[in-house]
């Protein structure tokens, strides 16, 4: 079965894990700090804070930027639900914003402008499928309105320019991402004080860590803010250090496979539309979304592909249409997002694939559509 995503793990990761186990120090140690520094350097950021998940990082970013009750945050509905959940965790209200178009399924600045109010405190820009949002556009939008700009960079690990133009940015290392630590995330922040607050909040708001106290730097600690248990452990950091060394090569492979998809879809499935075909912003090529022809039965297409050994999925169902959110925000209508989410299908894309796999997928898709 050709999977939508597949992590690249091997002997180096096993050796790194074994070294952590042999060290006897499995959490809150030196490897986490080494991973933070290496990841920040890779993305040309000043520093970073590793956390237990991208969700945790988004929550901490909201809190560190003093987003809370009474505030509104502009968010896309075309994203994973954690993006919007984090707004509610902080006590603020999410305001759903439509996408630009089927070709550019990124949060629309025009719609964000229309929905900005005196209560708006921040906007979350999500680099969907790994495609970079317009940095200058969103910096100008946020600066002119006095808003915090938060980048959801879950899809954009390793992408040059991602994570460094917002007030805060959060990456994901979940198992299907371009590099993985199984679970985990990383936070950037423009203001060092904000990043320091994220670092302290991830560990219960304590003023010192276990390693510092063991080294005799501190005997005890204080708690000066409400904190959470959002730490990354040494095992995940060790895997992350290994994975980071291959990230550029893997992203280059993803780019080559995406190029093959675009060429072969034009040949075998001319009625299938590929987002970002017209605009072509820089990308980490995290996933391969396509828009099925109007009227195609997406479930039937997916079933036909599965019968031929090809797994597919959807990125994503519209958040404002989930029953929990719809019951709380019943009047939300985002026509472009809804059309995209109704017709989108995600094809397999990962570095273990070869171009012959892309050929097989596109031919299978053509057969499925003909049925």
Q: What report would you give on this structure?
A:
The mean pLDDT is 97. The relative contact order is 0.17. A seven-stranded mixed β-sheet has the order 1-7-6-5-4-2-3, with helices on both faces. The chain has a two-stranded antiparallel ribbon with strand order 8-9. Helix content is 41%, strand content 12%. The chain is of the alpha/beta class and 371 residues long. It has helices at residues 11-23, 30-42, 54-64, 81-89, 109-115, 135-145, 192-201, 210-214, 234-244, 247-268, 298-307, 323-328, 335-343, 355-370; strands at 49-51, 72-76, 93-97, 120-126, 148-152, 168-172, 185-189, 288-291, 344-347. It folds into two domains: 11-244, 3-Layer(aba) Sandwich (Aspartate Aminotransferase, domain 2), CATH 3.40.640; 247-370, Aspartate Aminotransferase, domain 1 (Alpha-Beta Complex). It is globular.
List the helices and strands and how they pair.
Blueprint (H helix, E strand, L loop, with lengths): L10 H13 L6 H13 L6 E3 L2 H11 L7 E5 L4 H9 L3 E5 L11 H7 L4 E7 L8 H11 L2 E5 L15 E5 L12 E5 L2 H10 L8 H5 L19 H11 L2 H22 L19 E4 L6 H10 L15 H6 L6 H9 E4 L7 H16 L1
Parallel strand pairs: 2-3, 2-4, 4-5, 5-6
Antiparallel strand pairs: 1-7, 6-7, 8-9
Helix pairs in contact: 1-9, 2-9, 3-4, 3-7, 10-14, 11-14
Features:
371 residues, alpha/beta, Aspartate Aminotransferase, domain 2, Aspartate Aminotransferase, domain 1, 2 domains, seven-stranded mixed sheet, two-stranded antiparallel sheet, 41% helix
